Amino acid sequence: MWAGAERSSACKRSDKSKKMIQIDEFSISPDHYINGERISSEEKMMDHSPIDGRELGLVSVGGQKEADMAIAAAKAAFPAWAALGPEGRLPYLEKLGHIIEENVDALAKVETNDNGSLYEASLLRVMKRGGHNIEWFAKYAVDRLPEHAVEWETARHNAKHQVVYNPSGVAVVIAPFNAPFMLGTWKVGPALAAGNTVVLKPAEWTPLTSSLLADFAHEAGLPPGVFNVVQGYGEVVGDALVKNPDVARISFTGSPETARIIGANAAKNLTPVSFELGGKSPLIVFDDADKELALDNMVEQYDNCGQVCLAGTRILVQESIADEMLERMVERAATLKVDTPMDFETDVGPLIHPEHFAKVDGMVQQAVADGATLVYGGKPHEKGGLFYEPTLFKDVDNGSQMWTDEVFGPVLVFDTFKDEAEAISKANSTEYGLAAIIFTQDEARAERVTHGVSAGLVWVNCFYVRDLDQPFGGTKNSGVGREGGIWSFDFFSDIKNVSTRKGTFR
Fold first, then answer.
1. Catalytic residue of the set 276, 389, 406, 483
2. 309 an active-site residue?
3. Is residue 305 flagged as an active site residue?
4. Which of 112, 185, 406, 459 places its Cα 20 to 30 Å from the Cα of 95?
5. What is the CATH topology of the domain spanning 282-460?
6. Are the beta carbons of 280 and 305 closer than 8 angstroms?
7. Could you read off the pLDDT of 144-202 as tens digits, one per residue?
């Protein structure tokens, strides 16, 4: 029997004949999922855990062949899936969401072992979001798309006008390594709910929870070809996917550098793209702020070892309270526990991969060479492996690499400002514009600064608070387009205006 044929077998039964990857009591297929079947590739890559470097298992590596197979399967499955309509697709997607919710523990353990994220966060919050992503968008398509398919009449033309959301075709979804399951389902959910068929490519360093998602989709009864997973390297199989002329939409989360390559390839086929990219966001603290609240959020920016695109990595504090806030920030950072992410008491786990570790450490050492003052941390942690000390700089030149470029590690910079104008100027002094975090008790000031900063998301006296019906995306190098709520369906649909002259039907 195929590994995903029944719920208990999807991630709990070991089948050594198929060389399943075993994490605790859970078994994960190492192969692609194409047209409802597991497909093995001759080329393999070893998947390592960032926690301790141990080998998790060999994973199939796809190329042109697998990319073409997956897109062909998705293209063939598209007409029937699209014809179901939102209500016809709802039972499949609700069942998929329920299966995800029933397997939160498996997903949390597998993802923590695969990418080093904190097990507590995965178990209690992040993996539950995956099921919610699928179900919420499916229900939204049923409940809300008719509202947006507006009908109105014009006396001038004696006509009725309608706006209709039609499925667009095959959607390629490329997920990042820092939250592969949650961010993958965040895109897969609306793509499937809109009536598209999907090819998901997980990051090569974190393929395992996407493989489980394929098991769950199979168990939920999604027809063959509706959902596919292809593993491998971005420059090979990812390149083949985004160049394919049969692809109707490409949604990517990752770096601006990779997005430029994808965008150039997509442009040759005029394939619409949605890019959610990096950030170098400001966290701005005014002298009237709730200091305890601000400090809590300042330290929170080390979450997931700093591998969070939304993180406020440039902390800007008004001069009158800067010395006090810096001292207290260091005190808070010193209490953070750097250890295995499986421990509920751990605050900071490992970085994802030796290659990324070298990049983070290289940027830290470059900042020191550029004259920045190292206030705290600044080197690999004594635990060894991929653990890095929470790091804080001050006196960072506003034109230097550490100020302008995304580190994507547990590295923050601290700077000061005199007034609102300088805070806004410094906040906007990078090529990124993903988020901004503002702490003040002056409502008028909060509104002025919110309008002044260049960012797709602004949080005032809070952080990381967002509902699925709100738009998500960035400005400048932080992205192209918006997803979430109706914005996801604007992207994943072909929007059609229909004008019908009245009185012409019998």
1. 276
2. yes
3. no
4. 112
5. Aldehyde Dehydrogenase; Chain A, domain 2 (3.40.309)
6. no
7. 887 776 766 666 677 888 889 999 999 999 999 999 999 999 999 999 999 999 999 99
